[in-house]
Amino acid sequence: MTTTYRQALREALREALAKDERVFLMGEDVGAYGGCFGVSLGLLEEFGPERVLDTPMSESAFVGAGIGAALGGMRPIVEIMTVNFSLLALDQIMNNAATLRHMSGGQLGVPLVIRMTTGAGRQLAAQHSHSLEGWYAHIPGLRVVAPATLADARGMLWTALLDPDPVLLFEHGALYNVSGELEPDAGPVDIDTAAIRRPGRDATLVAYGGTVRTALEAAGRLAADGIDAEVIDLRTLRPLDVETVLASVRRTHRLVVVDEGWRTGSLSAEISARAAEFALYDLDAPVERVCTEEVPIPYAKQLEDAALPRADDVVAAVRRAVS
Amino acid sequence: MNVKERERLLRQMIRIRRFEERCVELYSDSKIRGFMHLYIGEEAVAAGVLPALGPGDAVVSTYREHGHALALGIPMEAVLAEMYGRTNGCSRGRGGSMHLFDAGRRFYGGNAIVGGGLPLAVGLALADAMQGKALVTACLFGDGAVAEGEFHECLNLAALWRLPVLFCCENNFYAMGTALRRAQAQTDLALRASSYGMPAWPVDGMDPVAVTEATERAVESIRGGAGPCFLELRTYRFRAHSMYDAERYRAKSEVEEWRQRDPIPRLTESMRNDGELDDAALAAIESEVEEELAAAIAAAEAGAPEPVEGLTRFVYAERRP
Fold first, then answer.
1. Mean pLDDT throughout B188-214?
2. pLDDT for B243
3. Which domain range does residue B189 map to?
4. Do the Cβ atoms of A108 and B101 come within 8 Å?
5. Cβ separation of A105 and B122 shorter than 8 Å?
6. B85 in contact with chain A, both atoms CB, cutoff 8 A
7. What mean pLDDT comes out for the span B304-321?
8. Number of domains observed in the structure of chain B
9. Domains in chain A and their CATH numbers?
10. A80, A280, A316, B3: which has the fewest Cβ within 10 Å?
11. Is A115 exposed, middle or buried (0-12, 13-18, 19+ CB in 10 A)?
12. What was the ipTM of the complex prediction?
């Protein structure tokens, strides 16, 4: 059936609310407004105000309340409009959600899912466009996932809700309107492994979230020139499925990482470091990285486009690696 | 309040006081390390608030929480063993003095981020309300938290959703070394809480009887479905903020004035005057507390150090579906 990333996410929310009465959705404008990106449209009407809760503009309070409600036996889904806004709740995410199990010597757990929009590409400028999931992937105690496909948008939420630990789910804002085919019986998917989205022999392209499309586009263009690139979608950013990446590098001997985060201290740096640590002698060329330019994301289209990883940049990086 | 209840309050305060006095010695002996914040002077609050809660009620606390933990009934040996970093500590040596936990007693921790526990309390109360449980969550925090954004977000949310939270502000007039009047434009904290549309009133936090009565009144109102309440418990910390504090920010005379209101001698004298307590009864309390303390120290000393092989345990659940 044809659907969109947004509809797939909504279907996942609907399934979760229907299947488990401990599940509720809470966040800014998730109810009457239908979600600031329309993901939760109709859920208030379907499940009522006790399951779909509009909150004040109080990110720290409602994210922390989600943590407390999880401690109290519920299975909250908290929506934060964008990852930039999540910084207002960083104390709760870092100092409570990620640490309570450890600080309590294993007595407590925080089975909470926090959904938020990440990424650029919509001319929303520097306070709505950043890709900060790499920061969160730095933090022990959290799981971080990034659905890049319709199947993952549909299937990651339920698995995340079953997890006994906090899961942050990053929805790329430029994907909401992407449409495609989804199996009518599409359901929960694992949140532990990376996936090979396009097998190839000549180079390994590692991407996640919004950059998977960029990598696939680049791979398509390279194929026309006889370069066969493998595209890996990380899917889960913490804990990383490094084995899938390394196994691919051992086959292709070249690694190009595509990351919408900034290069410095990024997930791309982590992937590169793992390759250097565990697959250095399998590499036939230096690791290449295609990242966002180190500027706050600008508004004007030509500036924003130039700041982000583009398929052209990826093609050029792969060519350098295989030359 | 009857004799038995007053004696219970006195015993609890003495228990907390003697525990912490011994903790200072153990700190000097390097048995306890890290930050350790003493509650000495503020015992009337813990002795009054915690026992006034009912079975199943939840508690969220701060990094100055030895007294709260003891008054809630967490065994003294589990608290002390935690400060020793031992396996029999109530957080298995991962938390220390600032992060005592007891899931079974619904004690959701010492939180060492000022104001950081308030959102948890709101969420615990939300969960209880959603599950139709007539339970209250007590959230203890200091006057410093009132300056944090989280305080205002949480009072608003709890009042808006009429959640069963008892906000207990232990106003000891200092946020670490910064006096309340130097940090907050309106120092009437109950007044500020009341602006969120919840009952809020100041309480003499040096009087455990007054604290008990205020807590009972608030808990009854909350359990009856009237929404959250706020108590401003005016109290004072006699000792340094933590173990390293030259106390340059306050006058010795001010400390001395507050010491005149020390809740332990105050209640002792009052009970003596009313013929409710004699030397023998007081000595019995002291000796029972000493016995408990000696047993706690022995248990902490005997506890195995939490093994290094288990360093990375409890980061994620050990079993996943």
1. 98
2. 84
3. 3-310
4. yes
5. no
6. no
7. 96
8. 1
9. 2-181 (3.40.50.970), 195-322 (3.40.50.920)
10. A280
11. buried
12. 0.97
Choice between B321 and B145, residue whose per-residue pLDDT is larger: B145
Q: Is residue B252 part of a domain?
A: yes
Q: What is the mean pLDDT of residues B201-213?
A: 98
Q: Is residue B91 part of a domain?
A: yes
CA pair distance B250, B269, nearest whole angstrom: 28
Domain annotation covers residue B319 = no
Report helix, strand or coil for A312. helix
Model pLDDT for residues B232-285, shown as the tens digit of each residue:
999 999 999 988 888 999 999 999 999 999 999 999 999 999 999 999 999 999
Give the nearest partner residue to A101 out of B60, B123, B314, using CB atoms.
B314
C-alpha–C-alpha distance, residues A91 and A100, integer Å: 13
Q: Is B315 within the bounds of a domain? A: no
Which pair of structure tokens corresponds to residue A9?
């996410």
The tokens for A111 are 């089975």
CA distances from B241 to B36, B168, B259 (A): 9, 19, 16
d(CA A11, CA A155): 9
Render pLDDT for A276-319 as a digit per residue (tens, 0 to 9): 999 999 999 999 999 999 999 999 999 999 999 999 999 999 99
Report chain A residues whose CB lies below 8 A from the CB of B156: 56, 58, 61
Average pLDDT score over residue span B286-291: 98
Q: Percent of chain A at pLDDT above 70?
A: 100
Residue B26 and residue B18 in contact, taking contact as beta carbons nearer than 8 Å: no
- CATH assignment at residue B40: 3.40.50.970
User: Is the CB of B132 inside 8 Å of chain A's CB atoms?
Assistant: no
For the record, the structure tokens of A18 come out as 């229907």
